[in-house]
Amino acid sequence: MTYFCPGCWKIIPADVKICPSCGCDLAAAEVRSYPERLIVALHHPVPETRTLAAEILGELRYRPAIGPLLARAREELQERPPDIQFLAALLRSARDCGAPAHEWQALLAQSNSRLLRKLVQ
Ligand SMILES: [Zn+2]
């Protein structure tokens, strides 16, 4: 089993209490609520994991996730190439959490991917 630091997402040994890379207090990170941990997981290094985190936040209709979802979508749009499946999950979830249409549609318009448009609809 591989453990990732919830602060910096580097691989860490299973038995440490403080991340050797960023100093994150792993015990304190454990007590975060489930949706808060999902928001942190939007930066998970494994694409399937971060996509799943975005999808679950959308299903939960977790309104406080709107800002982090849109911010993460903005970051992903800077990647060359962006992960289209992940971007679609971020924008759908922002919409499902109640983000104003103009906000997530503006990000959708920044990508010229037809697949992304299709996945978000
Ligand atoms: Zn760390």
- What is the end-to-end distance? 36 Å
- Quickly count the domains: 2
Q: Secondary-structure element order, as H and E?
A: EEHHHHHHH
Quantity of strands, as a count: 2
Low-confidence stretches: none
Widest sheet, order of strands: 1-2
Number of helices: 7
Structural class: mainly alpha
Residues in β-strands, percent:
under 5%
Radius of gyration: 15 Å
How would a crystallographer describe the biggest sheet? 2 strands, antiparallel
Proportion of residues in helical segments: 55-70%
Silhouette: elongated
Averaged pLDDT, please? Answer: 92
Bound molecules: zinc ion
Characterise the protein shown here:
There is one protein chain. The chain is mainly alpha-helical and 121 residues long. The chain contains seven helices and two strands. It folds into two domains: 1-31; 33-120. Helix 4 (66-78) runs antiparallel to helix 5. The radius of gyration is 15 Å and the shape is elongated. The model has no long low-confidence stretch (mean pLDDT 92). Zinc ion binds at residues 5, 7-8, 10, 19, 21-22, 24.
